[in-house]
Amino acid sequence: MPAEKHTVNAIFYVVITTLLSSIFWVLINRSGHMEAAGGIYLSALMWAPAVAAFVTIGVRHLGVRSLGLRWGGTRYVLWGYLTPLAYAAIAYGLIWTFGLGSFPNPQAIVDLTGKLGWHMTSASAFVPTYFLFIATIWVVLSVTRAVGEEIGWRGLLTPQLVSRFGFTGGSLLTGVIWAAWHMPLLLFADYSGDTPWWFAMPCFWVLVLSLSIILTWLRLKSRSVWPCALLHASHNAFIQAFFTPLTLPHGQLTRYVIDEFGVAVPVVSAVFALFFWFRRGQAMGERPLEPVAA
Questions:
Q1: Is pLDDT of 294 > 50?
Q2: Using CB atoms within 10 A as the burial measure, which of 67, 75, 205, 235 is most buried?
Q3: Residues with Cβ < 8 Å from 257, sequence gap 6 or more?
Q4: Residue 157 and residue 66: Cα distance in Å, rounded?
């Protein structure tokens, strides 16, 4: 496929994604809450990239196989699942070690046991049980949302941009588009955590660009979106539902180092991204990506 057609495909896809997403940006931002309407708006927003991908392959006459919907190998799915757990554990381990926060948070345990309907008073019983709950049921539920994004960002957009701009350019450009897609939520809803937007934004951009490199590597190496969906779901589950809420703040500084909008996770994920970037040749291989013509 000529290079300009990859560019046209990508532009067409981004336009359709933006049009579909704008509906749910407005609904979420008018409410001011990410989980408004019981999370239905957010789920629909996260599936807008997938719907746009299917529209694009229909209008632009691309093959469904180009979306990478095949399994791709258990090995790479496990890589996707375990990578966020690794960089989150390192980041939060550093936070706890240097006294910027501590683990666990007793009040969070009380709040979570109430929400879950559990009857556990000791941290030694609650923490491992809750971890297993997050690592299994929560991750599976998170996949149902994450795969909607990944079919679009990694399934369709990444191969088009990598074919046009190479691994580095394609990864970073996909990351820029992916990060920009989150900006209406970060600026106008409650997606920036406890940090002010001017601090949350650069941290989030570093995180997303780093993850885009890792996700591009997994997408190209496995030729599947499923490792990417598992990484996306695992990231959301472990950071948003386990490490962040169970970290006890030590003063005001803690909020500037935890979560996706503090410095620790973006910095550690950037180191992981370098590891994958130096091995980008393994992902590119000698074969073309997927068939792009129906």
A1: no
A2: 235
A3: 95, 100, 101, 263, 264
A4: 10
Computed on alpha carbons and rounded to an integer, the radius of gyration of the chain in Å comes to 19
Q: Give the DSSP H/E element, type plus range, for residue 183.
A: helix 158-188
pLDDT single digits (tens) 261-282: 999 999 999 999 999 999 999 9
Q: Who's near 216: CB < 8 A, 6+ residues apart?
A: 154, 158, 162, 167, 170, 171, 174, 283
Distance CA 199, CA 63 (A): 41
- Model confidence band, residue 290 (pLDDT cutoffs 50, 70, 90): low
Collapsing DSSP to helix, strand or coil, 101 comes out as strand
For the chain, how far is it from start to end, CA to CA, in angstroms? Answer: 12
Q: Look-up: residue for tokens 């970073």?
A: 172
Asked if 105 and 248 count as a contact pair (C-beta separation under 8 A), the reply is: yes
Rounded-to-integer distance, Cα 273 and Cα 214, Å: 6
176-197 confidence digits (pLDDT tens): 999 999 999 999 998 988 899 9
- Give the span between the Cα atoms of 286 and 145, in whole angstroms: 33
* Amino acid, single-letter form, for residue 161: L
> Is residue 285 pLDDT above 80, yes or no?
no
- Kindly give the interhelix angle for 264-277 and 158-188, rounded to the nearest 10 degrees: 180
